[in-house]
Specification:
Layout: H1 3-23, E1 30-36, H2 43-58, E2 67-73, H3 77-89, E3 94-98, H4 100-109, E4 115-121, E5 139-145, H5 149-160, E6 166-172, H6 176-188, E7 195-201, H7 204-215, E8 220-224, H8 228-232, H9 234-243, E9 248-250, H10 253-257, E10 262-265, H11 268-283, E11 300-304, H12 305-310, H13 317-322, E12 325-327
Parallel strand pairs: 1-2, 1-3, 3-4, 4-5, 6-7, 6-8, 8-9, 9-10, 11-12
Antiparallel strand pairs: 10-11
């Protein structure tokens, strides 16, 4: 082989070598923990985990070959504590955690196990990270909510239901990120000739009490920020909204898809898919501290025309044109 050819071959090997190293699989199966704030019966549970597994497979991680995935679920505080302890007891290489309460429990329990979160609002304000660009600890991930969107919710509610004058912002009492969401909404309420009040709940009875009170007053409307607790009781929310003819804006797509009037929020299953890339990078040696937290950049607007008709609402054409999806 001539010297020039030898150098060319060597140069090609140098370029290819890092890619080959990245493609190599570890000599032992890696253990991935998944902490979910959904029950198995919830359709969102399957949709989100399917997206995550598809993302892992894209990077070469499969449960039957080089990765073991352990799942734990929670809704209540007691379930959160038990699921967190259970998962950490398995000594995972990395944990995917969904929801603020689960991430908070993990943050309190470990400073060493890498954690990638999804569906969490305000991770900086809650102390999970030191900055968005440089988390500086063992936690990073994908935020699902920008609290200033609360003002957008109020605007959408006024646009689709102009007669609404009194708005309850209903959120889980134990979810501080949902509570923070209400501040911007209240600040702009006067601009839309509306009165917006916080309505924290901690059980089905609280949900029914708030919505019954709204239904007894003329011009009532509802805003529901993203929250797993409210999501677990969404059938009750739909039933009461229909009974009392309450227009409502929700923070997650599946609310509108399953019977809610309108939703505005991020694509959470897609965040699970994206989170697989961070899990892959951590399993291959990168640190959560060096992976910037991703803020939501695209919000989906979904309108359920069937529900609008049942409420006697005429959806403005300009709102329909802006919608990412219209359910008929």
């Amino acid at each position: 082989m001539k010297r020039r050819e030898f150098i060319a071959v060597l140069g090609g090997a140098v370029v290819a070598w890092p890619m080959a190293v990245r493609a190599q699989q570890p000599d032992r199966p890696r253990r991935i923990g998944v902490l979910m704030n959904r029950t198995e019966s919830d359709p969102e549970y399957g949709a989100r985990l399917t997206a995550f597994r598809q993302g892992l497979e894209k990077f070469g991680w499969t449960g039957d070959r080089n990765a073991r995935i352990d799942y734990r679920r929670y809704l209540s505080d007691a379930e959160t504590a038990a699921a967190t302890a259970d998962l950490l007891g398995l000594a995972p290489d990395v944990i995917l955690a969904s929801g603020t309460p689960g991430v908070r429990a993990l943050h309190q329990a470990t400073r060493t196990v890498p954690i990638v979160f999804v569906a969490v609002g305000e991770p900086l304000e809650q102390g999970f990270i030191q900055s968005l660009a440089h988390p500086s600890g063992n936690i990073t991930g994908f935020a699902n909510m920008e609290p200033t969107v609360g003002a957008k919710f109020l605007e959408l509610l006024k646009e689709i239901a102009p007669s609404v004058r009194r708005v309850a912002i209903m959120f889980n009492r134990g979810n501080p990120s949902s509570e923070a969401f209400s501040g911007p909404a209240q600040m702009v309420a006067q601009k839309f000739a509306m009165e917006a009040t916080e309505a924290p709940v901690d059980g089905p009875a609280g949900i029914e009490a708030i919505m019954t009170m709204l239904g007894a007053m003329p011009g009532g409307g509802l805003i529901v920020p993203p929250d797993a607790f409210i999501a677990a009781h969404r059938k009750l929310v739909f039933e009461l909204a229909a009974r009392y003819r309450l227009p409502a804006v929700y923070g997650s797509r599946y609310f509108a898809a399953e019977g809610g009037l309108i939703s505005y929020g991020v694509d959470i299953p897609d965040q699970f898919r994206q989170a697989a890339a961070y899990v892959d990078r951590i399993l291959r040696g990168e640190k959560p501290a060096d992976l910037p937290v991703q803020q939501p950049t695209k919000f989906e607007l979904i309108i359920n025309l069937k529900t609008a008709k049942a409420l006697g609402l005429e959806v403005p054409l300009q709102l329909l044109y802006r919608a990412d999806e219209v359910i008929e």
